[in-house]
Amino acid sequence: MATYKRVLLKLSGESLMGEKQYGIDEKRLAEYAGQIKEIQEMGVQVGIVIGGGNIFRGLSGASKGFDRVKGDQMGMLATVINSLALSSALGSVGIKSRVLTAVRMEPIGEFYNKWKAIECLENNEIVIMSGGTGNPFFTTDTGSSLRGIEIEADVMLKGTRVDGIYTADPEKDPTATKFREITYDEIYNRGLKIMDLTATTMCKENNLPIVVFDMDTPGNLRKVIAGEDIGTLVHN
After folding, report:
1. What are the residues facing 82 on neighbouring strands?
2. Percent of the chain topping pLDDT 70
3. What is the arithmetic mean of pLDDT over 107-124?
4. Average pLDDT value for the chain
5. 146-178: b or e for each residue (b if 16 or more CB lie within 10 Å)?
């Protein structure tokens, strides 16, 4: 049985690189498509937001001389490329999906609005919402918080390379310990970098819980949906 009826799945662009140094790893993409198919077959409505860091990050571009607004616009386009790739991978496993974009670019994707997204979800389509918020100076974490709230998701599932939230970066600090659950206020007080502050505040103010988990291990997405105690739950 599924614990959640409708979810917003936030995927990292960097994770799409898999074993590569840049771009999209077809094997990782296929694994993600398989995991998403598993939860859709459990009756879950799935909205997805993907980052673009495997192709271009606006903030890092700005530090190297790019105009920040143009850099962020490039990052938005990178998320569209990733969204099209995931849509194609889902199609190859027999799952219908719809790419909606925050910036008009028909026929690449339909222009996003809440009611179109919810209609597609209720018709059992995977909805991939690309282009961030459509505005510079906002991350895809903020975009996923916004979309999760708009589509009235029960939870945001933040798929990362790490299996939850730790007291410190476990890849750098072997003494770091994992939280089973944590409040938004504790994240602020401890200065934990789970998402940017705008995204975290939006989830807190709109009471959208987050589950941070390791998406790169096949089967984990289904376990989260089934209510198994993996990852870290963030709540008010």
Report:
1. none
2. 99
3. 97
4. 94
5. bbbbbbbbbbbbbbbebbbbbeeebeeeeeeee
